[in-house]
């Protein structure tokens, strides 16, 4: 890993790789026709979009449980716009799905993010419970326990995107948009986020208005979750409270932590593997959480960089072993030995 | 008028239960700096251990309750000692560890006992009548036990060396360690105390309310609300806020109905956060 | 008064730190009461006192990390008592830390770059920084991860981080703690450079009496929750009550 002076604002290899991977998702409808593949891919894309929301906050060492609540705000906004407002243009709906949750997050963030980080965690958890309650208690707006059904298919430039393939394209498009936004924000503010994550007090002592960056991250994270909500509602053609349950926040957190929190590829890897695994092994929702629990504990104790970090450490180890075996002196790369290395926290 | 007093009694009763839960949670945070995400899970575990002791082992209820408290305390002790302690300085890591534990516990309970609520009833039924009030005896007993437990916790924290040591660690870990206190010994004990309280509450309350694997979530949310309101780390704050929350919940469910009560609470907490971020009794929280 | 004197007065007022009747309580515990001090640009003030007297708390309050229970703080005539940590930093009141405190996984250069950026500094700070890096033997190690540096150099980096923000008031919290004999004179060097380059005032909390005697024309003694004495070191350190308060602590300095 290079140790050059910080490159301001430029995307790193992790960001670029993520965008490329997601662009490749557009190829899936051309490779396969199987409804199972479509369904799993769609779920994965939604998971990735939501996981980015968790990822962005983790860059500042903040854990958000609010992803389902902002997904709900985004999803219901889209459903209402489509059902009551007659809006079906995908781009317009996406803009709504991003901006409405972001606007809600702004005052909330300004309120909570000036306090200690632990308050943020508690408040986001409680927020998700509140939103769930609101969804059930305001049937006039949200359809209550019935939700909002019968959403029309979205359109793009007049073309109706009703069939499975088109829905998959929308999901891929939303995931790609989320990736571009995430890449943009984390690249441009890389030094600020890294400083906040690593040593918030020091950053403040040097004059950084830390809470502003936290609020920025929170607002963007809310928008990303809103996009995920749109994607989910579009797949189901229904906005229902059970899609946004408080405990589902754990899933998105799991995908990011287990995949690896130090790089954008982490949420992608985590979402892909875990969604695929729970589908293929027909693990029901409740039981999969037990699996997540074990994996989270393992990651926290043994593999700080998640799956991605573990793979990276493995490759490094293989490299070192090979170099020694072939008699060449190991390069004096400043990267330290894996496992207990703090380098798993540094973005590529 | 009777409705008013009856609601008040429910409020006090709820408050006492919540106080036991919130005390445990705030102790873990204040002393160890850990947000115990598994707190609701220990409540549920306590309920199920008591249920299993009564229905599968034929134990009398009081024994079952004690067993529940001991099992949850022991589980908490082991968890802190072997897992949490290894990342004790990293707040986010310990939170994720407790989150992982919660998931494992919930799923474990689900696998062992199934998703349906078991038939777990309080052994003493009947109501007390007087002054136009109907008070279920069960609630009264639970209230008494909870109040006793709260009193015991206060006695422990303020009148014993152990409690003083814990509070010193909470105030300033560096100074306390320099003065010879050993966190490695005391932390697992503190954790066990808190989880034991949660399990005790579970064993007492679930026969009256209900028992199910997923009940940990709302318990956790309520604990969070209470400690935000009362101030993280403050024992007095947790107790006071617990009773406030209990009262608000009781009155709003009687007079407003449905989950409006919960909404009222959440709004209340948000307002408090604006006006006084450190909660009613909390310490300075000027962070970012 | 002449134009020049007016200008000098204004310049002086701009960076003057005035701490008025500051007191701090934590719950039932009183840390100190009625602390007053003034720092004009270019001043160097030493703050000494036994452990637990509240010296670090005083720094925490002046830099904005903690709010005082009573009292007020003025910078350049403007009241800054309630201002948050980052605001005071931006206004020029910057502190260093007692423990080594850097961005551990970042290189020396990245650390300094962040300090310059977060304080809204301009590129010409680097000119002076490069000089100081060379002076303190950090120039060759610029691309090393900061937590791989030896202790002494991490502490110097901490001082340089504060310097990078071009402060008006530098609050140094035990800058020499843990440093070996010859490394300690680097602190002198640093303080003199900071004053010369930035025209700032410096407040030094220290246990090292030699360093205090060398650098500070004026010192304050904190003890038992109050300011026990104030004046030139030679005078203050020979006072009976200061020696009594400090018995035992003076031996610590030869670490």
Summarize the structure.
Chain B has 288 residues and is an all-alpha fold. Chain B has eleven helices and two strands.
Describe the protein in words:
The complex is a heterotrimer of chains A (about 350), B (about 290) and C (about 260). Chain A has one domain (about 15-345): Orthogonal Bundle (ABC transporter involved in vitamin B12 uptake, BtuC). Helices cover about 70% and strands about 0% of the residues of chain A. Chain A has helices at about 15-25, 30, 35-60, 65-85, 90-110, 115-135, 140, 165-190, 190-205, 210-235, 250-260, 265-280, 285-300, 305-325; strands at about 155, 160. Chain A has a two-stranded antiparallel ribbon. In chain A, a hairpin with a 2-residue loop joins β1 (about 155) and β2 (about 160). In chain A, α4 (about 65-85) runs parallel beside α6 (about 115-135), α8 runs antiparallel to α10 and α11 crosses α12 (about 265-280). Mean pLDDT of chain A is about 85; it is low at about 1-5 and about 330-348. Chain B is mainly α. Chain B has one domain (about 15-215). The model of chain B has no long low-confidence stretch (mean pLDDT about 85). Chain C has about 260 residues and is α/β, with parallel strands linked by helices. Chain C has a single domain (about 5-250), classed as P-loop containing nucleotide triphosphate hydrolases (Rossmann fold), CATH 3.40.50. Helix content of chain C is about 40%, strand content about 25%. Chain C has eleven helices and ten strands. Chain C has helices at about 5-15, 55-60, 85-90, 110-120, 125-135, 150-165, 180-200, 210-215, 235, 240-245, 250, and strands at about 15-25, 30-40, 45-50, 70-75, 80, 95, 170-175, 200-205, 220-225, 225-230. In chain C, α4 (about 110-120) packs parallel to α6. Chain C is globular. The N and C termini of chain C lie far apart (about 50 Å). In chain C, about 45% of the residues are buried. At the A-B interface, α6, α10, α11 and α13 of A face α4, α9 and α11 of B.
